[in-house]
Amino acid sequence: MIHIENIRKVYRTRGRTVTALDDVSLHVAPGEVYGVIGRSGAGKSTLLRSVNMLERPDRGRVVVDGADMLALSERDLRVARQRTGMIHQHFGLLSSRDVAGNVAFPLEVTGTPAKERRRKVAELLDLVGLGDLGRAYPAQLSGGQKQRVGIARALAGSPSVLLSDEATSALDPETTGSILALLRRLNRELGLTVLLITHEMDVVKQICDSAAIMSNGRITESGSIPELLARPDSELARGLFPLPPPPVRPGTTIVDVTFTGTDPARFVSALARTYAIDADILAGAVEDVAGSLAGRLRLGLPGSPDANAAPLAHLREHGLALEVSA
Ligand SMILES: Nc1ncnc2c1ncn2[C@@H]1O[C@H](COP(=O)(O)OP(=O)(O)OP(=O)(O)O)[C@@H](O)[C@H]1O
């Protein structure tokens, strides 16, 4: 649905040169919720804005729903942008217009007749749970309600793709949860593909099917969440399930096991059953990630890593990612 290939973007301002995107490629499949996570300045906004050409990459290729975005004329680009809705951290609502007027705005721009506009606005407000707030003004709304208006407006052009620019960063955790649940529902019910950028691991944990980690204008890790968690030394796993530094325990093998879709009790009891090992559980973080159980568990196995070669191989053979320290 979104194919970004080897894009590069360099900003040059007053003698300063910043490479915001350094050979970035990303592939978002139709119907998935894809999160790009990274620190401030990593290049996330530039990447997101390159999808609908709010920023034009210096080179590379961006294809959205079959349209080669860099090759489009201004007119065709306007049409392609309507198929790509966008929501923002600070909502971007017009304070002089009521809720219905804000949602109607893109429909006015594209010349939708008034009657059709009214029908569509009512339908969109119902969809985002604001059916009775059409006459309210943005100043009268909570942050969560404002973002719902932003989402309704972004969906006015019946887009196939929704771009979310830190949409929950200005919201408290509970409201964040309800907006993410709404995005997930729209993703499932409308088949909407969602590409979001965030600096919060919790957002990835709550709704993403796939993710990429960005740092200094580059993508350091990308793939589906189970794929990423299965990688040895996964940066995403460490971010999602932080554990304290490993303790020093002479004569013990410390192993951090990352798992997804497995009940951790199963591999701990398999070690006891097959190898008669009494593993100590030293730390752990287990959560529901995108609907399945995932986490990291730190085990202490008696003996050196060499002495534990067979049980460690057994764990790896069962698809678990391990980080071993003595
Ligand atoms: N219009 C611009 N002109 C010059 N430099 C820019 C411009 N936009 C972004 N940059 C620089 O490009 C780099 C990447 O910025 P970008 O906003 O894409 O990162 P980000 O990961 O979204 O960070 P944040 O979460 O703080 O917005 C930063 O060093 C930033 O200062």
TrEMBL record:
Annotated signal peptide: none
Superkingdom to which the source organism belongs: Bacteria
CDD domains: ABC_MetN_methionine_transporter
InterPro entries, alphabetized: AAA+_ATPase, ABC_transporter-like_ATP-bd, ABC_transporter-like_CS, ACT-like_dom_sf, MetN_ABC, MetN_ABC_transporter-like, NIL_domain, P-loop_NTPase
Pfam families membership: ABC_tran, NIL
Positions of the ABC transporter domain: 2-241
One GO MF term attached to the UniProt entry: ATP binding
Keywords: Amino-acid transport, ATP-binding, Cell membrane, Membrane, Nucleotide-binding, Translocase, Transport
Bilayer-spanning residue ranges: none
Descriptive protein name: ATP-binding cassette domain-containing protein
Species name: Actinocorallia aurantiaca
